[in-house]
Amino acid sequence: MTHTLAAFSRQVHDILLADPGPLGRERVRTLLEDVVKDQRFADEHLGDDQPQRRLLYQDPDLGFAILGHVFHEARRTQPHDHGSSWAIYGQVAGETTMDGWEIVEPATEATPGKVRLHDSSTLTPGTARVYNEREIHSPRREGAAKLIRIEGNPNQAGPRIVWEPA
């Protein structure tokens, strides 16, 4: 099935309007897995010449954002959460290892928190994963990769906390 950005964003809107919680996000994750398998959609929105991060759509009512990511080389991201928001990562091309972390020492205003690696899973083309509020994670890539990420309301998420491995 061929997807359009307009139809996809409308479906995400309708799902989250009916259920903005974890069950609604799981339904969005399933939809995203279908979208990231659509090569025409990927070719249209994730060109090799685009910036590493590009806003594809921001919902004017619910605030969620659909972002396209194109990474040309290996990259490791510091452990972080999305504040009071959430994120769903969908792999289009390449692989992304998602490390999950548990808190060892809480963060303070003056110092980052400390975390310990809890689990790792690999996103391969056609797969997606949800990270709910305050779930600490860090993506890493050994090479080029393309993703579509849906983020809750990034404008109202509050401060994101960056963590350091213990």
Automatic annotation (TrEMBL):
Name assigned to this protein: Cysteine dioxygenase
Species assigned in the record: Candidatus Methylumidiphilus alinenensis
